[in-house]
Design goal:
It is a single chain. With 703 residues, the chain is of the alpha/beta class. Helices cover 46% and strands 20% of the residues. The protein folds into four domains: 2-17 and 336-423, no CATH class; 48-330, no CATH class; 445-637, Alpha-Beta Plaits (2-Layer Sandwich), CATH 3.30.70; 639-703, no CATH class. The chain contains 23 helices and 28 strands. Strands 20, 21, 22, 23, 24, 25, 26, 27 and 28 form a nine-stranded mixed β-sheet that branches. Strands 1, 2, 3, 5, 6, 14 and 15 form a seven-stranded mixed β-sheet that branches. It is rod-shaped, with a radius of gyration of 48 Å. The two termini are 48 Å apart.
Length: 703
Amino acid sequence: MGKKLITALAIGLLAALVGLFLRQQGLLAPLEFVSWQYRVAHFAEPAPSSDRIRIIALDQQSLDWGSRENGLSWPWPRQAYEVILSFCNRAGAKVVAFDLLFSEPSLYGLADDAALVAAMQANGPVVLSYTLGADLTGRAKAFAPSPLELAGFAQHRAWFEIMSKAKATLPVDEIACCAALLASISGTPDQDGIFRRMALFDLYQGQPVPSLALAAYLAGGGKMPPLTLAPGRLRVGDLQVPLDRQGKSILNFRGPSQTIKTVSAAAIIQAELQLRNGETPAISPAEFNNAYVFFGLTAPGLFDLRSTPLDAIYPGVEIHATALDNLLNQDFLQDAPLGWTVLLALLWAGLAAVLVVFCQRAWQSALLFVLLLPLPLVASFVAYGRGWWLPVAVQDLSILLALVGGLAFNFATEGRKKRYIKMAFGQYLHPTVINQLLEQPDRLRLGGEKRELSIFFADLQSFTRLSEQLDPERLTLLLNEYLTAMTDIIMAAGGTIDKYEGDAVLAFWNAPLAQPDHADRAVRAALRCQARLAELRPGFAERFGFELFMRVGINTGTVLVGNLGSNQRFDYSILGDGVNVAARLEGVNKEFGTPILISAATRHQLSPAFQVREVGRVKVVGRQEPLVIFEPVAEGEVPLSERLIAFEQALAHYYQGDFAEALAIFTPLAQDDAPANRYVARCRTLLANPPLAWHGVWEMTSK
C-alpha cells in the first residue's frame, strides 16, 4: 500500500506541474475566462455606491431626436453640452466626467468652443478625457495633463515603466485649460478582447496620470486626498485599491448594461429647457443631486462599445463608471496569491490521484470525476464572494490529469492483475464471480490461506462398469454432457470447481470470495444437481444404455485454500481433513442408499430453508471420531412429513439400543425409503447378535 500511495502522489505532483506550466504559458486563459463569466454573472448586483453614479448617454435616441427636432448631425455643436452641464450644476452633481474627446476645434466655429468653455467655468468641476499611445499623431498642444502626486511611485517606477506612453491625443488647449482634471481613457482589454480589469492610473511620458474613474473621484471630492503606491496596493485617501502586476484592478461588475442608472442625453437637454421655461421637467434634477455624472457615447454608430463578461455590447463609459463604483464601495476584486494557486493545484491533484488509484470499481472512478471536477469551481465561487479571483482552469486540469494518470496506472497494474485472475480462475469460477474478483481484486489472497469452506464431493454410481462397457469416444461424450450440466449448476450457485477426477467433481464455496451462506449454496446446488440428473437420466439411458445416478457428500470445515503449484502451472485448490470428510460422506451414501449426505457442521450452518433429516452416526475409514450425518430432503420451509417424523422416532430408539421398537417403526417405512430399509436389516442383525457395548455408531468398513 505504501508503494502505491507514493506512486499516486507522484502522479498527482506531475499532473499539478503540467497544469501550472500550461497556465504559465497562457494556454488555460480561454477556459479560465469562461468560468469567470459564470462567476461574474452569479454575483453581479448593484451596490449601495451604484446609486451615487449617473450616466448621461448620447444614445441612438438622442441622435434621432437631435436630427429630427433640431436638424443636428454628428458631431453635435458643443453648445449642447452647455445645456447638460447647466442641468447637472442645477441638480448639485459632484462632477461631470466626459468620456468624449474634444481633440479638434468645433466644426461650428470658435464661438461654439467658447460656449463650452464658459459652461465649464460656470458649472464645474468638469473632467475631460484624452487617449494615450505610442504612435498617436495630431496637433501639438501647449496644455498637458498634470501628473498625479503619487507617493511611493519613484520606488516602483520600474514596475510600471512598461505602461508608459509617450504621446497623447489631448483636448484643444482652450477647452483643456478649463477642466478640473484631464483623464486617460486608454483602457486595454484582456487577450480575448474582453474588459475585466481597469487601471486607475496610466503613465504618460513616465509620469502617473489618472484614469477617468479616478479623476472623477478626485475632482468630485473637493479636497485632493493623498495618493500612495505600495506593493500590490493603491491608497486613495482612506480607500485602498488592489493592483495586479500590470497596475490594473479587477472590476466587480454590477450587472448588464444600464445597471448603473443611465439617462438619455436628449432627455436631459429637454428637462433643462423645460426648467428654463418654468415647466415641470420630465426628469427631476433631484435624481442627480450629489452624484458622480459620466457623459459617454452609447449609440452603435459612435463606436464606443466594448465587451465585458456580462455583455458582448457594453458602453465604454459604463466600464469607467463601474471602476468608480468599485472605488467608492471598496470592492474591487483581486487575484488570489500565486502560492494559493500552486498549493491548491497540488492538493487537488494529489487527492484525485490517491483516490482514483485506490478505486477498485469502474463506477467509483467515474464517481470521482463527477465529484472532484466541480470542487474547484465551487471553491472559486466561494473565493469570488470574498473578493478573490481564484483560478479554476489550472485546478480542474490538474484534477483531470491526475484522474487520467491514475486510471492509466490502474490499467497498467490492475489490468495485469485482472488478466492474471482471469487466467487463474476462468476455468473453474462462474463469470459473475470472476467479475466480482475483477472489481475487487484485493479480496483475493493469492497463495494459501486457511478458511472455512463448504465442500462438495460428487461421484457417479457404478462408473467403473460403465467405463468398461463404453468405448472412449462415447464415454467422453457422456462425461462431458454430465459434467457440463452439473458444473453449470454449481457455478450458478457461486461455487468454485476445484477439479474433475474422471466422473468425480470436487467443488467448494466461500472462496475466493466470502459467501456467508456457503452451506446453503452447497446444499442447494446438490439438490438441483440431483434434480437435473433425474431429468437427463432417460435421455442418457436411451443414448448410452445406462441410467446415471450420482452420490454427493458435503462437509463444512476449515481447510487450506489457494493457488497451489508452480509459477508455470498451478491450480486454485483446497487441502485438509475437511476435504477427506466430504469424500467419505459421498461413499457413505452407498451404505444408506441416499443421494446426498451432509455433515453436522454443514447442518449447523444451514438456514431453515431446507428440510433435513438425521440419518445416523457413522465412523468412516481414517477417522477416530464418529460423524453425525444428515440427508437434505427438500428445499423449502415446510413441516416434516409423518414418515420423516416416524424415521426420527425409530432412529431415537435405535440410538438407545431398543432395536425391537426401532425395527417395528422402520419396517413400514422400508418399502420406499432406502435408509429405513438399511436400518431394518441392521436392527435384525443386532437383535440376533446383541452387542456387548452399545454406542449407536455405525462403523464403515470401506471408503
